[in-house]
Amino acid sequence: MAQIPAIVDGRFKLFESHAILIYLACAFPGVADHWYPSDLFKRAKIHSVLDWHHTNLRRGAAPFVIHSTLAPALGLPLNPQAAAEAEKLLSASLAKIETIWLKGSGRFLLGSLQPSIADLSLVCEIMQLEVVDEKDRIRILSPYKKVMQWIEDTKKATQPHFDELHTIVYKVKGRLQQLREAGANSETWSKM
After folding, report:
1. 67, 126, 164, 177: which is closest to 192 by C-alpha?
2. Engineering a disulfide at 106: which of 12, 35, 111, 165 sits with its beta carbon 3.0 to 4.6 angstroms away?
3. For the segment 99-144, what is each residue's pLDDT rounded down to a tens digit?
4. CB-based contact 7:14 (threshold 8 Å)
5. pTM (2 d.p.)
């Protein structure tokens, strides 16, 4: 299957982000237990978050970014109605992260004191918002103070790798900001 993300480890090929994260956490000795705990109950909770991610947060974040910002770069028109619908699901997902997954005294999902693969997966999904107009990103995220702190805590816990892995997102953000400032139309964006 020609899908991304994908990895090849020797003769073993694997795609799908969550499967890859689980494989990497299990296949290599020395990976700290907090990433994918050996405790069955903690592991099941992480799976619950990961499954929820694809049917909730992903269905809000990715379509919002595409329909509000990236569509012209993909040769498509912006779709404000689809963006508004996606934003509703995105906001509901952020509210659930804030009130359910970040409940407790820990700085990370499920009340943990250290990040897990679930933290990586969900924060990376939210990082797509970096490419939308700054005022929209702030408007969407600012009601969720715990979410914003959790994103920062996850970034700090995974530096310098976090910024390294998000280099392309930061480059796209910079380029889109330049186009916005120049008042570029969607035809110019498609040549991005």
Report:
1. 177
2. 111
3. 999 998 899 999 999 999 999 999 999 999 999 999 999 999 999 9
4. yes
5. 0.89
